[in-house]
Prior knowledge:
Elements: E1 2-6, E2 16-25, E3 33-35, E4 42-46, E5 52-54, E6 60-62, E7 66-69, E8 76-79, E9 83-91, E10 111-113, H1 114-117, H2 120-132, H3 137-149, H4 157-168, H5 175-182, H6 186-197, H7 201-219, H8 225-231, H9 237-248, H10 252-257, H11 263-267
Antiparallel strand pairs: 1-2, 2-9, 3-8, 4-7, 4-9, 5-6, 5-8, 7-10
Helix pairs in contact: 2-3, 4-7, 7-8, 7-9
Amino acid sequence: MHYRQIQPAAPLARFVECFWILEGEGAPAARPEAIFPDGSSELILNFGEPFRQVCPDGSREPQPRSFLAGQLRGPLWVEPPARAGVFGVRFRPGGAPAFFPLPQHELAGRILALDVLWARSAAREVEEINVDAGGGRVEAVERFLLAALRRGPPPDPVVEAAIESILSAGGALPVESLAAGIGISARHLERRFRERVGLGAKLFSRIIRFQGVWQAIRRGDHDRWISIALDGGYYDQAHFIREFKEFSGETPSSYVSRSHERKLAELFARQNRPASRFFTIPRSRGAATVGRG
């Protein structure tokens, strides 16, 4: 499959990290693959066959043609179709409320069809853009989002400051210290964070830390994953294995031994995203800085 990204124009760039397009033929009889939580919500518009989602009982069901994927708390297992065509809008952490003005924790872990979130006419409009616009999809979706942005609530500066601090620290900053630095209680911060981001600040920090260490492992020496995890702020090997399994669905050793099969995880691994501090591992033991690009 072919994957590419397009950067949004201002003022969308404050809320949208990128647009992305995935298209091509899936592998015959492909195994289900996991997409890992990364701290972002996404708007998904299919112009090819929808992916099939693997349910907890092992059954498969097609995803909606257009939907919002709320914040993931754990791995999302999907099967690629015979021929995929997807246009995605990846929101920055805390950026989705500008377009979906709902408490984001109500959307976390859920796949919601657009006609559930927007008026049916708006959902139909964006679906028709995706089907008919062809090479003009990006410009058409930008116009649609800009119109929605003007109707959305203003950003929360407290939550924005907290997100920046968490990303800068690679998820290693205790929430109590974070809240004290901002000047509010940890409980108040958790509530505002959940409403705007979809996850509590503590869980969001854990996901950022997991992403940073996973990125370091997949970019570096697989045999050094234990030392990389310790450099990334985990207490010990057992702590890292437990967290890795929670967010990826398997142990680190299992992932490393079969990483070449994880096509979707690799495509959505942010390896081509703009450079940022999202994946900076603290240099507690001489670890290297890991960037997106």
